[in-house]
TrEMBL record:
It comes from Rhodopseudomonas palustris (strain HaA2). It comes from the Bacteria. InterPro entries: DUF4403. This is DUF4403 family protein.
Length: 511
């Protein structure tokens, strides 16, 4: 009888204890207990992108342009170099230009062409010269012979060969005011030759070179002004500036409808021409502000009055695209990995079942707050209940997998109070929970990354050309995750689309 009474008493105690535990469970708060978080300033809305394009011009294209444009023939007249001996002098010259050749060297291009022509001299000896010749002949051969010979030398018609080359050197410089100064200089070199007139010798280069020099220098000066004043560079830049100033739809895999990438160019870049033995390379580019908007925009993009000079080795396409993930969306992605699961999953002295997950930011870390139900497993009367555990972590990007995960997990000090309620057995389950967070709290960014790469790639691909005299190659070859940041409401991953935009001009138009 006494044993039966004891069993009944124990059953009453156990039932009372169970009811008490259930009462605790029913009356305990169901929401995640928040901590006081450090407020963070809003993330900057704008990131910087750049498109820096190498424009290559083969020296063969420059050669062909000069060959088409430069005069092939020169002609002129020279003054009488010996008026005391020659009268009625008519000295004329003609020069033909040969095929053009080009040669490149650091900072300069040299264009050369051979010159071949003739100098013709017509006229008669002056009276005094004829008398001197007649007196000389009379003394030698007699007056009769002298008169006969003198008639033959009274008039003359002589010619001489002109041979040489012309060399034009350009040292082009890009000016900040959107113009190019070609810095042209020319040199005419003639081989030494002479024309004999009545026993006197006329030096051909002395008679022809000053006239050719003047003709060449006049044309060079005119070409210098034409190129210097030409506005083709600015016109082309204005056209492309307007094309870049736009909104690009980003809707697609991993990106909800209503998101646009706004590009607003702010600076124009240029580098001084780089010249080698085959090409002249000019570098042009823009820097643009990029931001995500919820509707298409019409950004205002004033064209810059000045170019900003940069180093020539910074070419390429780099478009920064922020991928924003609100913390509420982060909660939605993470919750299926934890809510309803019990840790450790293979059993242990205590079990922690996750009931709710919340992610927030404070300082330079993220705080994962979990409403958990903890129970001991070894004893019938093991104490347990609900409490909130707070775990700190730092977001880390994995470039290879294009994922975002948490590292440097650390139990918040504020969670220590929970163990007084849950019991020390629950503390042993926390490392398993931290390990699960590190393994499962992973955001797969590949859908967003692929969509961004595809969208930006389509914009860049629109520049491709393969026409007569012009070839444009464009491609977005990769996308990498460059940065992760957050404020009090969202987490931002910055993706950078990288590629090329290269221009080759194989046929030039005359200025």
């Amino acid at each position: 009888m006494r044993f039966k009474t004891i069993l009944i008493a124990l059953a009453i105690i156990a039932l009372s204890f169970g009811v008490t535990l259930k009462a605790f469970d029913w009356l305990s708060p169901r929401a995640v207990s928040p901590l006081t978080l450090q407020a963070l300033p809003p993330l900057p809305a704008i990131r910087q992108s750049s498109v820096v394009v190498p424009v290559s011009v083969p020296l063969t294209a420059i050669r062909d342009l000069v060959d088409r444009s430069a005069p092939r023939n020169f002609s002129g007249r020279a003054d009488n170099p010996m008026p005391q001996l020659v009268q009625n002098a008519d000295i004329s010259w003609t020069v033909a230009r040969g095929a053009v050749a080009t040669k490149g060297a650091p900072e300069q291009v040299t264009v050369t062409a051979p010159l071949i022509g003739t100098l013709s001299a017509r006229g008669s000896l002056s009276s005094s010269a004829q008398n001197q010749v007649g007196d000389t002949l009379g003394k030698l051969f007699g007056d009769k012979v002298a008169k006969q010979v003198g008639v033959n030398i009274k008039s003359f018609n002589a010619s001489g060969e002109i041979k040489g080359m012309i060399a034009i050197t350009a040292r082009p410089k890009v000016l900040p005011d959107w113009h190019v100064d070609p810095n042209l200089t020319a040199q005419v070199i003639l081989s030494d030759s002479n024309v004999a007139i009545g026993g006197a010798r006329i030096n051909v280069p002395a008679q022809v070179k000053p006239v050719i020099d003047k003709a060449v220098n006049d044309q060079i000066a005119q070409l210098q002004r034409t190129i210097r004043d030409d506005g083709a560079l600015e016109r082309s830049a204005r056209r492309e500036w307007a094309r870049i100033c736009r909104s690009i739809p980003l809707q697609g895999a991993g990106v909800p409808n209503g998101f646009w990438l706004e590009l607003r160019p702010t600076k124009a870049l240029a580098a001084q021409p780089q010249i080698d033995g085959a090409t002249v390379a000019l570098t042009l580019g823009i820097v643009a502000d990029s931001r995500i908007t919820t509707a298409p925009t019409k950004p205002e993009c004033p064209f810059p009055a000045q170019l900003e000079m940069v180093a020539p080795d910074s070419t390429g396409v780099k478009v920064a695209v922020p991928i924003d993930i609100p913390f509420k969306e982060l909660d939605r992605v993470i919750e299926p990995q934890f809510v309803g699961r019990t840790f450790p999953e293979n059993g242990g002295a205590a079990a922690i079942t996750v009931k709710r997950v919340n992610v927030a930011a404070s300082g330079d870390r993220l705080l994962i707050s979990m409403l958990v139900d903890a129970k001991g497993q070894k004893s019938l009367f093991s104490f347990g209940g609900e409490a909130t555990l707070h775990i700190w972590g730092r977001p880390v990007l994995n470039q290879e997998d294009q994922t975002l995960r948490l590292s440097d997990m650390q139990l918040a000090v504020e969670s220590e109070a929970a163990f007084g309620l849950l019991g020390e057995a629950a503390r042993a389950a926390v490392p398993y929970l931290q390990k699960a967070i590190a393994e499962r709290a992973v955001i797969d960014l590949k859908p967003e990354s692929l969509n961004v790469q595809r969208r930006i790639g389509a914009v860049i691909a629109a520049y491709q050309r393969n026409e007569d005299g012009l070839r444009i190659s464009s491609e977005i070859s990769s996308l990498r995750l460059t940065d992760v940041a957050f404020d009090s409401t969202m987490l931002r991953v910055t993706a950078e689309a990288n590629g090329i935009l290269e221009v080759t001009i194989t046929k030039l138009k005359a200025p």
